[in-house]
Specification:
The complex is a heterodimer of chains A (270) and B (459). Chain A is an alpha+beta fold and 270 residues long. Chain A has 5 helices and 3 strands. Chain B contains 4 helices and 30 strands. In chain B, strand 19 and strand 20 form a beta hairpin. The chains are: A alpha+beta (270), B mainly beta (459). At the A-B interface, helix 3, helix 4 and strand 3 of A face strand 1, helix 4, strand 24 and strand 25 of B.
């Protein structure tokens, strides 16, 4: 028999009432805490919403700010572009898929743990010696991927010199391009790297050509930039002039060429 | 009448002399866009050292026993220099003909221009050791130009050592790169200075551009940061922690000791020195007047003067190396650090980055680009990466070079404008990396200890 069960009912009710009253007393701080936390959370939300209307400094924010979300003309770096434009109309942009690898033949499993039977002679397999007859030739399947095939788009680095030296007047020039094709290739590379097509008006007809003239001195420094043949479009002409002017030096002229100057005409084809 | 003729005679003489003067030699070429702008396919032949591989030397003493080792170093260095140049498509060693022509008479150009090597250019030559001299003759031939194939012919002579063989290969590679690359010098002979803690304290170290030959430069036993080599490779400026706090120190590589730089030790924290392109001035940040501001002093350490006066820190100046008329730096006036440029007298301030956390600018040698480290989405909830970016200053267009690989900082341009060296921290471990300026060909240069703040020499 426990002590509680020995109590009289009236005493039990008394005690229950007292305990209930005490629990109501304890409810007060809980509600207060809930209200406080709710107010804090609400305040935070309100601050975020109101602050959103008034904040003026988005630096560092998640929003992409400013007006310079553009890609760099990376050709301006003195590195060759990886993919020169392909002028070949026969080349396809979407090569056929490479044929799937043939599944490797499964090798016959050899039981390595098998104990060899001593004295067992492997029976030699009978060689099949069938009479060779003219078999029907199966057409061989071309197992290659078909790309748009073309020669690598590289400048002809070799041309035969055409020296007209059999006249009474001997002019020993006109062969720079054949003797030093690598220098011409370097001129070509440096100028085209510095040509920004974005400077040209977008409405320029495709295929318009501006030819720019400049003179390279012995140290490789270009000067005397001129429009040699105008394209009829001033933006294309000007972009070509600027491209040539951006080059500081092409490197000294080949020392054995004995040239004082090299005159260059350069086509800019839009 | 006679008198008049007498007067005219000298004039006629001059006219005659002028007209008989040979006309200036000149020539004309015509080229243009859309003619192909691909990488030059170049082959580096194994140099001929007079030793047949595998065969025993019949006459001992005729060939120095060190020759094979030197040849191996030379061949490997030349090959990697050409591969690293960024403008060549180097033919793999397994595809080149198994011959080593030692002179123009021995080379069969058709062999090199044919598949599988298909080389447009071939570098070859001979390497020999006579007494205490290493002699290297190198040629560069255009394989498709049968009439006049020679592009370059060079001869080098140096001491018999692996360092000398490597240096000779660097020199020859630089000649090839400069000749074929349109006058932009190669970087094979350049150095990279950096901070390394592998010896215990943070000291300034140096290495070749390809990570070879790493050695300590300073032995101060203190913390040294941000090394900057002078344009003539004679002096090294850096920040060091001493009893007066952070100060700018100057180390002479010619003398092998510290030299005085009084402007850099006047109170406050003095950090991040930067040489002007002419080597006459030094910009740095100093907090002697309160906030860290940009100061400029002569190289001798005299006449320091302040360029910026803004609330918030101003640090990490860098000069436009082409004009020496502009300075880019990092300012925290709007909160997070951003990149700004100004004229060298402090005028014309303009802001380049539009947000995020942008630090460590480095100006490209042609003056056109800034490379810097940028966290475009900085802050809690914006997990952006610290990456290297390049910005075209005139148009403010930019290009991201590193992607999703560690935290990247402290970019520094190579003098050819094609390469960038930077620091990459992965898992709390900082190492030096290099890459082409379009973000490709990333190579790790250092492997041991913590290595930070690389600076590429000017030549």
């Amino acid at each position: 028999m426990t002590a509680a069960s020995r109590e009289r009912p009236s005493e039990q009710i008394d005690r229950l009432e007292r305990e209930l009253g005490r629990s109501q007393e304890r409810l007060g701080p809980t509600v207060g805490s809930l209200v406080l936390h709710g107010a804090l959370a609400g305040g935070l939300v309100l601050y975020g919403m109101i602050g959103g209307f008034f904040h003026h400094n988005t630096w560092g924010g998640a929003a992409s700010g400013g007006a310079i979300e553009v890609k760099l003309v990376s050709s301006a770096l003195p590195l060759p572009a990886d993919h020169p434009p392909n002028e070949n109309v026969l080349a396809t942009e979407t090569p056929s898929e490479a044929p799937a690898q043939p599944t490797p033949k499964e090798e016959k499993a050899v039981d390595e743990t098998a104990i060899p039977i001593s004295g067992k002679v492997e029976k030699p397999k009978p060689e099949t010696t069938q009479p060779k007859t003219q078999q029907h030739q199966q057409p061989v399947e071309d197992n290659r991927a078909h790309y748009g095939e073309q020669q690598a788009a590289s400048m002809a680095r070799s041309t035969q010199a055409q020296n007209a030296t059999n006249g009474p007047v001997s002019i020993a020039n006109g062969d720079f391009g054949s003797r030093y094709p690598w220098y011409v290739a370097a001129i070509n590379r440096m100028v085209s790297q510095n040509w920004y097509r974005a400077e040209v008006d977008q409405h320029t007809a495709k295929g318009s050509k501006a030819t720019v003239y400049f003179r390279i001195n012995r140290q490789g420094v270009p000067s005397d930039f001129k429009i040699f043949t105008s394209s009829g479009n001033s933006t294309l002409d000007r972009s070509g002039l600027r491209a040539a002017e951006r080059v500081d030096s092409f490197g000294p002229l080949p020392s054995d060429s004995n040239l004082q100057y090299l005159d260059v005409t350069y086509d800019f084809t839009y | 009448m006679k008198r008049a003729l007498q007067h005219l005679f000298p004039v006629l003489l001059v006219v005659l002399a002028l007209s008989s003067k040979p006309a200036l030699a000149q020539d004309w070429v015509h080229t243009g866009t859309n003619l192909g702008n691909d990488r030059i396919r170049i082959a580096a032949a194994d140099f001929n050292s007079g030793v047949v591989p595998g065969a025993r030397s019949s006459a001992p003493g005729s060939v120095n026993p060190e020759t094979p080792a030197l040849k191996a170093v030379f061949d490997a260095t030349l090959y990697s220099d050409l591969s690293n140049a960024g403008i060549f498509d180097v033919v793999s060693k397994s595809m080149i003909p198994a011959v080593s022509p030692g002179s123009p008479q021995e080379i069969n150009l058709a062999q090199w221009s044919a598949a599988p090597s298909s080389a447009a250019m071939v570098a070859f030559g001979a390497l020999s050791v006579a007494g205490d001299k290493l002699t290297v003759s190198g040629w560069l031939f255009d394989t498709r130009n049968t009439s006049s194939p020679q592009v370059l012919a060079r001869q080098y002579s140096d001491a018999v050592s692996q360092e000398a063989a490597r240096l000779t290969a660097h020199k020859f590679a630089d000649e090839i790169i400069s000749t074929l690359g349109g006058g932009i010098n190669g970087i094979a002979e350049t150095k990279i200075y950096f901070v390394s803690s592998r010896g215990g304290s943070k000291e300034i170290w140096a290495m070749d551009y390809d990570g070879q030959n790493q050695h300590a430069v300073t032995h101060l036993g203190a913390i040294s940061l941000s090394p900057r080599i002078s344009p003539d490779n004679s002096r090294l400026a850096f920040a060091s922690l001493g009893k007066e706090g952070w100060s700018i120190r100057m180390y002479s590589l010619d003398l092998g000791r510290q030299v005085s730089f009084p402007a850099g030790t006047v109170g406050g924290s003095n950090l991040s020195p930067a040489w002007s392109g002419d080597g006459l001035k030094l910009a740095f940040s100093s907090s002697r007047s309160g906030d860290p501001e940009i100061w400029v002093a002569d190289v001798s350490g005299s006449s320091p003067h302040k360029l910026t006066s803004f609330r918030g820190p101003d640090v990490s100046p860098v000069w436009n190396p082409k004009t020496n008329a502009q300075i880019a730096w990092v300012s925290g006036r709007t909160g997070l650090p951003q990149i700004y440029t100004m004229d060298q007298d402090g005028a014309n301030v303009s802001r380049l980055t539009d947000g995020g956390y942008a630090i460590s600018p480095s100006w490209s040698p042609n003056g056109q680009f800034l490379a810097f480290s940028w966290n475009r989405k900085y802050g809690p909830g914006d997990p952006g990466g610290q990456d290297i970016y390049v910005m075209d200053i005139a148009s403010k267009r930019w290009l991201q070079l590193t992607h999703e690989a560690g935290s990247n900082d402290f970019p520094s341009w190579a003098p050819d404008g094609r390469h960038i060296v930077f620091e990459r921290t992965v898992g709390g471990h900082a190492e030096i990396w290099s890459m082409l300026a379009d973000g490709t060909e990333q190579h790790q240069l250092t492997k041991s200890g913590n290595n930070t703040m690389p600076n590429w020499s000017w030549k």
